[in-house]
Amino acid sequence: MGAGASIDDGAVASLPSDVVEKYRSGETLKNEMAAEDAKFIRHQSKQMWKNHQGIIALFTERSKSQLRRCALLYQQSEDMGGYNTKLEDEIHEMLGGNYGDFMRLLVLRREDIDIENLDTALMCIGCEESILMDVLCTCSPVDMLRLAELFKEKHKVSLSSKIESKTPKAGSFQRFMMYILENARDTDEVTAPDEAAAQAE
After folding, report:
1. CA 130/CA 102 separation, integer angstroms
2. How do residues 49-107 score in pLDDT, each as one tens digit?
3. pLDDT tens by residue, 27-52
């Protein structure tokens, strides 16, 4: 759940009051921490991002979900001049180079990183097969559905159609990619190596 998350009434009714209170207390603390982090980053923005020790400590000591809370509060903050600035965009602009790229990747959601990698793999003359495999072969079925939705939303074409148009028709690599895309496999299931290989073939 993101900043301002809450338990619905049905869930509250079925939980002991002390559990609900602990949950709400935890959410309050997470939101307060995210607000403090956003305040620190706003100060750094006004100071041209000079406190690198503090910046590195903040971005490397927070979880991905906590950084996303911070990024959301940063984007919504009124004292940033109403520009609706995305934290990841400002990091890229202000820090630059490998340093900025690394810090930006810490803030981005996995699905955003995957979409950028898919763009690199597919939005060129050919197809970067290794990048495509790195992205799709590490997705769970749930991740894959979300990724396909985001890809179609961004490019107005399905991910499967794009891959089919960029890979040798009816080739082994294309068949493998289609299998990965369409197979609603249970990633928690224990499968014998020989059986898994047979399924892939």
Report:
1. 21
2. 999 999 999 999 999 999 999 999 998 876 655 556 789 989 988 998 999 999 999 99
3. 999 999 999 999 999 999 888 899 99
As to burial, measured by CB atoms within 10 angstroms (0-12 exposed, 13-18 middle, 19+ buried), residue 146 is middle
> Chain-wide mean pLDDT for the chain?
85
Buried b (16+ CB within 10 A) or exposed e, 41-76: bbebbeeebeeeeebeebbeebeeebbbbbbbbbbe
Q: What are phi and psi of 14, to 5 degrees?
A: -95, 0
* DSSP H stretches of helix in the chain: 9-13, 17-46, 52-61, 64-76, 87-95, 97-107, 110-122, 129-136, 141-155, 159-166, 172-182, 193-200
Residue 104: how many other CB atoms lie within 10 Å: 20
Q: What is the DSSP string of 54-90?
A: HHHHHHHHS-HHHHHHHHHHHHH-GGGTT----HHHH
Cα 43 → chain centroid? 26
Burial class of residue 108 in the structure, from the number of CB atoms within 10 Å of its CB (0-12 exposed, 13-18 middle, 19+ buried): buried
- Cα gap 77→60, rounded to integer Å: 22
Helix axes 159-166, 110-122, angle to 10 degrees: 30
